[in-house]
Amino acid sequence: MTDTPTSPAADPAAVRRKRLIALGAGVTVIALGWGSYSWLSGGDSRSTDDAYVNGHVVSVTPQVAGTIIRVGADNSDRVAAGTPLVEIDPSDARVALAAAEADLARAVRNVRGLFATDARYDAEIGVAQASLDKARSDYRQRQAIAGTGAVTGEDVRHARDAVRSAEAMLAAARKARAQALAQTSGATLASHPDVRAAAERVRAAALALARARVVAPVSGMIAQRSVQLGRRVAPGDRLMAVVPLDRLWIDANFKEVQLDGICPGQPATVTADIYGARVTYHGRVADIEAGSGAAFALLPAQNATGNWIKVVQRVPVRIRLDPAELARNPLRIGLSAKVTVDTSRCDRKARPAAPQAESVALYDAQTRAADATVARIIAANIGRQP
To answer: Which residues of the chain have pLDDT under 50?
Structure first.
């Protein structure tokens, strides 16, 4: 008589083992889910390794046309704002400036003559008025003695004609004076339209000559040089670029599910792949960009047409870096980085700092130099102010 084998399904140890395996698998799935959720959208920090160094690439372009006769910088050169980078042949600009200066000097002298004419017409009116007064006096005297026979009727007629002639001369002098005043009324020599028009031509020519020297608008490193000696350039042609390496920032491309809780002003730590973990940058969140990378792409996705597949979008978050840390450990545009933002505090009512206006003072200096040229020419030809 043989023993009947025990069924595995009836084995309590096997059943308990299966239940433990199922429970362990369930706990693992829950832990993985919770960890994924915390990594994507929860916790007191947000991290991404989809981050890159970015910065301004300031184009250097000419403002006047001409032939390149000198190039003063090449790629990787460090330059300060105002450093001459390219020189355009200034011969035509010098000729134009000399002609404009001569026109301004002539205009100033002509307007001086107009003011002097005003004074001359005032004197002519005085002479004509005196002649009229004398003619009227002579006419009245001849009329008074005409009845006595001391003067003839012809003398009286001649005296009357002399009065009419003097009146006509006075009227002509007044009209001439009015015509002269129409050219100078309400204006000084410097503000006269003829002088102002000539002065603007001098300013334009002086600026064109100054702009023949193309200078660096900002301090930084030269990149993307394309200009060569002898090349004919036109206004707006790209010659090279200047990258201000002390104004770099990080564009951290967070997933859209990570953006909740990120606010301007939050502290952030950055590690760049070029230095690894041995160098840590400390920055601040400037703000979340206005749209996702796909929205501003050259060919944005058209999700309303054809088949649609949902893709988690990434939105750039700008991280401002400490200039002192950048000076100690320089970065370059395009380098990879990893960013962690501390989201433990978030003041949603806080507004990002107002942007700092950018300007180039050297262009103002060129304008002031042109104004000084105009003032010098006017002063040299104005003589005594009427």
So the answer is: 1-4, 6-9, 41, 385-386
